[in-house]
Design goal:
Structural class of chain B: mainly beta
Shape of chain B: globular
Helix content of chain B: under 10%
Mean pLDDT of chain A: 94
Shape of chain A: globular
Order of helices and strands of chain B: EEEEEEEEEEE
Distance between the termini of chain B: 37 Å
Radius of gyration of chain A: 13 Å
Low-confidence stretches of chain A: none
Number of helices of chain B: 0
Number of strands of chain B: 11
Order of helices and strands of chain A: EEEEEEEEEEE
Oligomer: heterodimer
Number of helices of chain A: 0
């Protein structure tokens, strides 16, 4: 009963390096999301995928790209990391796009960009 | 701009006391207001949620109060316990945005034994 699994748990990058954050869910959910959490700013939506084969920008998409690889997996890529991207990244999934479909979050990836 | 504003940023309560966290929103199109609870090192998890057609929803020790005219809603934790120590986020969404939530800034609650 894994739910939403994120890898890696921790990562340190130098400015300009690239990396991909991986996310997989085993709940057969249709929708998946990437949020970033920063102190005093709550969680902000980066990108989301309403269903397999679709992706859309959220509130703070600049500097990121995503891939909905299949129904289970949704990855987030930083092409050229910047210190402003130091954050905790959370992947989430929901059964549907309905407003009362609860989000199920992974345990996060803590990223530091130096 | 923050469409959902949450206060206080941090809160310390004695065991058995009442914890109250407040949120205010700007967008009158919001029609779903959940609260999420987050323990250290974990992702947030849904705690309780309300729609604006009711003014209050209670689940055990947790109650949401909703004031549509004031565009405010709050979380009350009765008989607070040390195990309630966590970060709490209010959030809002509207039908046209589906489950894409707008979160408040978060409140770090500490319940002292």
């Amino acid at each position: 009963n894994a739910g939403v699994t994120q890898t890696p748990k921790f990562q340190v990058l130098k400015t300009g390096q690239s990396m991909t954050l991986q996310c997989a869910q085993d709940m057969n959910h249709n929708s998946m999301y990437w949020y970033r959490q920063d102190p005093g700013m709550g969680l902000r939506l980066i990108y989301y995928s309403a269903s397999e084969g679709t992706t859309d920008k959220g509130e703070v998409p600049n500097g990121y790209n995503v891939s909905r690889l299949n129904k289970r997996e949704f990855s987030l890529r930083l092409e050229s990391a910047a210190p402003s991207q130091t954050s905790v990244y959370f992947c989430a999934s929901s059964e549907t796009q309905g407003s009362n479909s609860p989000l199920h979050f992974g345990n996060g990836t803590r990223l530091t960009v130096t | 701009q923050q469409q959902v504003k949450q206060s206080p940023q941090s809160l310390i309560v004695q065991k058995g006391g009442i914890s109250i966290i407040n949120c205010a929103y700007e967008n009158t199109a919001f029609d779903y207001f959940p609260w999420y609870q987050q323990f250290p090192g974990k992702g947030p998890a849904l705690l309780i949620a309300i729609r604006p057609d009711v003014s209050e929803k209670k689940e055990g020790r947790f109650t949401i109060s909703f004031n549509k005219s004031a565009k405010q809603f709050s979380l009350h934790i009765m008989d607070s316990q040390p195990g309630d120590s966590a970060t709490y986020f209010c959030a809002a969404s509207r039908e046209t945005s589906g489950s894409r939530l707008t979160f408040g800034e978060g409140t770090q609650l500490t319940v002292n034994p």
